[in-house]
Write a structure and sequence with these properties.
The protein is α/β, with parallel strands linked by helices and about 350 residues long. The chain has helices at about 60-80, 100-120, 130-135, 180-190, 195-205, 225-245, 245-280, 295-305, 325-335, and strands spanning about 20-25, 30-40, 40-50, 90-100, 125, 145-150, 155-165, 165-175, 280-285, 310. β2 (about 30-40) and β3 form a beta hairpin. It binds 5'-O-[(R)-(carboxyoxy)(hydroxy)phosphoryl]adenosine (KG4) and zinc ion (ZN).
Length: about 350
């Protein structure tokens, strides 16, 4: 194992944020992504989606690792070319360290380590969920601290209290399925492809969100639960299909609109509670599910009603991307928070 650490021979430019260029890699699941950021501005953000998983109805970890291996060189190359910079002008190499699929994380981690070692530049390990939160700092319109962020992805649903760039606390989270899983599992029950979130959104646009009523779980505090919703949808479909075998086909738009509406109301009711409890009015959303236009609209409407300042990352920074890893790495760079070459990936690490 390589155990060279950041020592006096590693070239770390003076901290202070002037002309700092970072190459970031994201490979935690089924997107291979690379981005270049200079002084907190994203110069390129390249994402390659792996289509190999579609026919399996979910991500196959071994196939994800192999696809990352195939994609990583061209993706990094394109990120560097698009940013119009050179490998030799990169000041630090960042990668997603956790959470994610171990084999997939390893690809980005080893690639970054190799570059760090070969070019004698520091290495920065980034937590994927922290990066989703800080994607809100990419656009010109940025939240002031402290802010709350509802982070909704395929594996996590969290309300995060963010006091400073790297000072974050999870104050509410799901006890079972994540919001993205609720979308994906509902879609699967309806015979829609993986990942199902974007398909539910597409059909929901033409449906009546009040047509079918699905239950809202009563969970204490700021935590969430989505497993009951999945079971309720399963029984609902089984029951209706007994009377009409074409029930799904004939009602797809209304079912999707009703499911989406319920997921949104579960999320926003807890976010509202968190804002009341903390008194914070700078509120963000982030993560793959924040690409959902229904959630974005309802969130902004609620914010208007309650006098919040609302923030949502642009679409390309909602689902998995390396731009968010780069912006987080930039703040870690300024804080002098570098990783050792012995750093290893973690499937579940908290921050
Ligand atoms: O953040 P992300 O890209 O990856 C993880 O870190 O998990 O989130 C992926 C999740 C999937 O569950 C996917 O179905 C969901 O985000 N998603 C959406 C939409 N786009 C992606 N869910 C609802 N509506 C969308 N438009
Ligand atoms: Zn993610």
């Amino acid at each position: 194992m390589i155990t060279k650490s950041i020592d006096s021979s590693t070239q770390v430019p003076p901290l202070g944020g002037q002309g700092v260029t970072i190459l970031a890699i994201e490979s935690s699941c089924d997107e291979t992504a690379a981005a270049i950021c200079r002084d907190g501005n994203i110069l390129s953000n390249i994402i390659v989606n792996q289509t190999v998983h579609e026919k399996y109805g979910g991500v196959v970890p071994e196939l994800a690792s192999r696809a990352h291996l195939q994609n990583i060189v061209p993706v990094v190359d394109q990120a560097i070319t698009t940013a119009n910079c050179q490998l030799s002008s990169i000041d630090a190499f960042a990668f997603t360290q956790a959470p994610g699929l171990i084999g997939a994380l390893l690809v980005g981690l080893q690639f970054s380590k190799s570059l760090s070692l070969a070019l004698n530049k520091p290495l920065i390990a980034v937590h994927h969920m922290q990066a989703h939160v800080l994607a809100n700092l990419i656009p010109d319109k940025k939240p002031d601290f402290p802010f709350l962020c509802l982070t909704v992805s395929g594996g996590h649903t969290q309300i995060v209290l963010c006091e400073d760039y790297l000072e974050m606390k999870v104050i509410g989270q799901t006890l079972d399925d994540a919001a993205g899983e609720a979308f994906d599992k509902s879609a699967k029950l309806l015979g829609l492809p993986y990942p199902g979130g974007p398909f539910i959104e597409k059909y929901a646009q033409h449906g009546d969100p009040n047509k079918f009523k699905f239950p809202e779980p009563q969970i204490d505090g700021l935590d969430f639960s989505f497993s009951g919703l999945k079971t309720a949808i399963l029984y609902f479909i089984q029951e209706r299909k007994k009377a009409n075998d074409n029930f799904i086909e004939e009602n797809l738009n209304d079912i999707c609109a009703s499911v989406q509406q319920r997921i949104i109301s579960i999320l926003l009711n807890k976010l509202k509670k968190a804002a009341e409890q903390t008194g914070i009015k700078n509120i963000c959303i982030a993560g793959g599910v924040s690409a959902n236009s229904g959630l974005r609209r309802s969130f902004e409407n609620l914010g208007k009603q309650l006098g919040w300042k609302t923030f949502i990352p642009p679409f390309e920074y909602c689902t998995d991307n390396a731009g968010m890893i780069a912006i987080t790495a930039y703040h870690k760079y300024l804080a002098g928070d570098f990783a050792d070459l012995s750093v290893s990936p973690s499937a579940r690490a908290e921050w």
